[in-house]
Write a structure and sequence with these properties.
Order of helices and strands: HEEEEHEEHEHEE
Structural class: alpha/beta
Number of helices: 4
Distance between the termini: 33 Å
Strand content: 25-35%
Mean pLDDT: 94
Strand order of the largest sheet: 1-2-3-5-7
Shape: globular
Number of strands: 9
Length: about 140
């Protein structure tokens, strides 16, 4: 059901994320609150996650700070597209505050890991990669 949010996340994007979560092997169930907050129960012994979806091509540190202020208890912030990214400062600030910052494919990968905050995709050589961009 469409709602409203201050992050310009369209209902089509929200539906896309819901579809991805519904078919995800590490997701037992999820609920959506405040339009863009996803409370995700994960399979196995993985802890639940409170994730916030935002519409940013590049997530900056100010975005992370605002999400943390607007959504107390957030554990993970993600941008909806694989083409999106975040600044190094945003990623580091998030980690310092126990908040993971990801783009969509990283978010979906992080759901599989107990230590989701430090999840990083790996390239073909097994080296961790990040979606760093400049603002």
């Amino acid at each position: 059901m469409p709602g409203q949010n201050d992050w310009n996340v369209s209902y089509a994007t929200i539906q896309f994320v819901e579809s991805g979560l519904a078919g995800h092997t590490a997701v037992e169930s999820f609920t959506r609150e405040q339009d863009i907050v996803f409370r995700i129960a994960r399979t196995g012994r993985r802890t639940p996650i409170m994730a916030v979806l935002i519409n940013r091509y590049v997530i900056g540190q100010a975005d992370v700070m605002k999400v943390m202020a607007d959504f107390p208890g957030v554990q993970l912030i993600f941008a909806h597209g694989n083409w999106c990214g975040y600044t190094r400062e945003a990623k580091e600030y998030g980690l310092e505050n126990d908040v993971g910052v990801f783009e969509m494919s990283e978010f979906l990968g992080a759901l599989h890991h107990s230590d989701f905050l430090r999840y990083a995709k790996k390239d073909h050589k097994g080296i961790s990669t990040h979606s760093y961009k400049t603002a």
